[in-house]
Amino acid sequence: MLAAAALLLHLWQLGQVALRDWDEGTIAGVARAMLHGGSWLYPTLYGEPYWNKPPLVEWLMATAFSLGGVSEWTARLLPAAVSAIAVPLLYAVGRDLFDRRSTAHWSAGVYLTLLPVARHGRLAMRDGVAITLFLLLLWCVLKARRERRWALGAGLALGGLILTKGILALLLGGIVGLFLIANRQGSLLLSPAAWRGLLLGTLPAFAWYGAQLQRYGSQFWQAHFLSQSFDRVWSTVENNQGPPGYYLVELLKYGWPWLAFWPGGLWLAWRYRRQPWGQLVLMGTVIYLGSISIMGTKLPWYVLPLYPFIALAAGAQIDRYWRGDRIPSWLAGLLGLIGGAALMGGSYLGWSEGKPRLVAIALTLGLTLGLTAFSALRQKRRFAISLTAGLYLTLLLLMSSDLWLWELNEAYPVKPVAALVRSRVPSDAEIYTTFPYERPSLNFYSGRRIMAIQPAQLPQLWQPDIYFLIEQPNPNLPPHAALGSASELTLIRPGD
User: Fold this and answer.
1) Cβ(394)–Cβ(365) under 8 Å?
2) Within its chain, how far is the Cα of 495 from the centroid?
């Protein structure tokens, strides 16, 4: 049931909206290059070596492209399907950690219906795949405490994690190792059988890294390990910065209503800190949240691996209410307040902007939280069922619209511009844009790289065989031909 519900939510109308900047457009471009004769071992992007991250997700995407053609649906299909598997895996981890099956059920239900998890799990990105592999690693390690043969599965999961997110595997793998030590299972880390499994499982990942270093040498080391990995820890990369509390703000923005159960779950984890589940929740939360908070580079999706720990903590708290603990009146009031705000705010925006689907989403969410608050106020334990089911229905409505990927509204639609470029610009011609930044999604749909330049750079590049996408007509430019306009951009070519 959990797997089916997760797959439905992650795959429902998956190809309805365009690929977004940044990772989706970039990863899809690398995968398409693999499909069209590029090397699967040595990834490239528009003819240049691609060293940002290892290529497991690109391999998945290129496989889908080869079977179903190049489209938004095939780009997202396999990453989304793998991301959905995290839900039953979290349940499996919970079954191994908790004494009661119901606690594992609630934890998986929380994780399934967290907005950031559902949204990012549908994207053609690495993060959902990485969380699934982390949970697989954790589950195999829990099994390996009793049966050493599960260490091979742990090794394969760790190897897959390395091939997905590179050095993130050090942090997540370190959390698992410290959990074993805290749980007095450090002997597993010294077991020859366990090490054999880990080494065999991670061999493909180390082989890929060895191939890159053998071919590219210090260039790969500098670009992959330093510029795109360790530099993000102690410095700001591409101006993606924020204060130490950046990720707490992200949680406060998108973690409701389950965030209301998190503090109580953390308190329970502290009370039961001698039990494996309490140790894992506390160590995972403190180490991971602390690590990403002190990093120099901050991006919203870096917080995603924290959500399994939040779900385990919240699930433990909800199960206490399910078993008869008194539900505090403040919780009912908070849920009702959130529901009222969602109902009024969403309905107003939906009506004012002519978006009936947004009104339907707001009504569903508002009624869900209102019913949940009423049940909680009356001490009815079924409040948790109505909350989980209502949130799931709300997310299904959201994913059936084009509202779920709201980042597409941050800049102009790329598809009309890409169609103009493909129809009027030769495939081997250079093209630049005066838009403030380069858009990987435009590159993908155009089938070429369109680099961003400052308007002051136009005279330096002004040649008859170079094309430009400018934001607005400029009468001060030298003679040029306007070849068409789309999404408030005009395509021009120097000359009469």
Assistant:
1) yes
2) 45
